[in-house]
Design brief:
mainly alpha
Length: 129
């Protein structure tokens, strides 16, 4: 997939508000750290097989699926659908986490915000390519 990021991604039309490539690593590192802390806090209270953690797992799968859909297979429409569903599952996860531990829910809000931005970016790229 790295090859596709370097060879294919620079050739497609992107909006001027696309972040620079160097920003993705630090942003995702911070988001995954917050997600890890949040999930651990909730799991320590209600367990890893609870509804909040099942939703958390579902959003991780959707999150993971987006990259190959977009970068490897160039299925921009499918990536847009995936990330739209992801938004709903992340929101549901925040609601469920909030019922268990407010801080854990708050730790996921930046992830939801970044995912909203990524959704807009995905749709823009899909519609313009």
């Amino acid at each position: 997939m790295r090859k596709d990021v370097k060879a294919w991604y620079p050739t497609i039309r992107k909006p001027r508000w696309t972040p620079p490539n160097w920003l993705f690593g630090p942003v995702w590192t911070a988001l995954y750290a917050m997600m890890g802390v949040a999930s651990h806090r909730v799991a320590s209270i209600v367990g890893w097989t609870s509804r909040p953690l099942v939703l958390y797992g579902a959003q991780l799968v959707l999150n993971f699926l987006w990259s190959p859909l977009f970068f490897k297979w160039h299925k921009l429409g499918a990536a847009a659908v995936d990330i739209t569903v992801l938004l709903g599952v992340v929101y549901a996860t925040i609601v469920e986490f909030g019922a268990v531990d407010v801080l854990s829910a708050q730790l996921l809000v930046p992830y939801l915000a970044w995912s909203c931005y990524a959704t807009a970016l995905t749709y823009n790229i899909w519609l313009n390519n």
